[in-house]
Design a protein that fits this description.
Helix content: 55-70%
Distance between the termini: 20 Å
Number of domains: 1
Shape: rod-shaped
Number of helices: 5
Radius of gyration: 24 Å
Structural class: mainly alpha
Amino acid sequence: MRFDDPWYDALASGWGESDGTGGPVPVVADALEGRGGGAADVYLEVQRSAAFQEVRSRYRRFVIPGVAVFLSWYVGYVVLATTAPGLMARPVAGAVNVAMLAGLGQFLTTFLFTWAYARHARLRRDRAALDLRWDTQELTRGVRGGER
């Protein structure tokens, strides 16, 4: 494989090197444009595949409930801070009150959610997504070479 080839692996090339204008150069999709629409067919085929649907459903099964819980916790904090100032001002230990603990809890849950998301992605989605990426690139290389 030649490293100066524009079809060089998108993972290694950072999804396109800079073209001097500050923006990335598209590696696959735009390079195939105008060659009979083959790339669009490849991406549609991959999108319809069971493997792609599984990766998307794993993503949604984690992110949708996670975001719902996190936003509920955040909105609950804001609502309590504005509607129940007496509760939020209740001292817990010395100068630390319920509002301070809840505010620190917001930071803690942000980091916890980020850690959980990264762990979930690493254990449940990254390998399957990487396999899909390689398969897609092989298919698009086939379109480019006229093998399809």
